[in-house]
Design a protein that fits this description.
The chain has 98 residues and is an all-alpha fold. The protein has one domain (11-79). It has four helices and no strands. It is extended. It starts with a helix and ends in an 18-residue tail after the last helix.
Length: 98
């Protein structure tokens, strides 16, 4: 089984998400152990991945894998296109005042 597509999909999906930003903020604290931040965030990601694998394997017993992939694709598309009713995306707005 080729695991690279799984690795790359998860890696790029996690770049810049809320989890990574939260980890960045914890690591920015000068009084917090960087190794501790890494260990805690890595442990949380491993545990959440385990939960996803367990739930996914159980769902496939009741829902055909094709339907699960379709639902995931629709969910990703909706998330990617989520924005304000006027079409703007609040995450991509920047107000820099000097």
């Amino acid at each position: 089984m080729n695991l690279w597509p799984i690795f790359l999909t998860v890696f790029f999906a996690e770049l810049g998400d809320k989890t990574q930003l939260a980890t960045l903020l914890f690591a920015a604290d000068q009084h917090t152990s960087k190794l501790g931040v890494f260990a805690a965030s890595a442990g949380a990601l491993v545990l959440s991945s385990l939960l996803a694998v367990l739930v996914g394997s159980q769902l496939s017993a009741y829902i055909p894998p094709r339907a699960l992939k379709l639902a995931a694709g629709v969910g990703f598309s909706l998330e990617a296109n989520r924005g304000e009713p006027d079409g703007s995306d609040p995450q991509h707005q920047c107000d820099v005042s000097l």
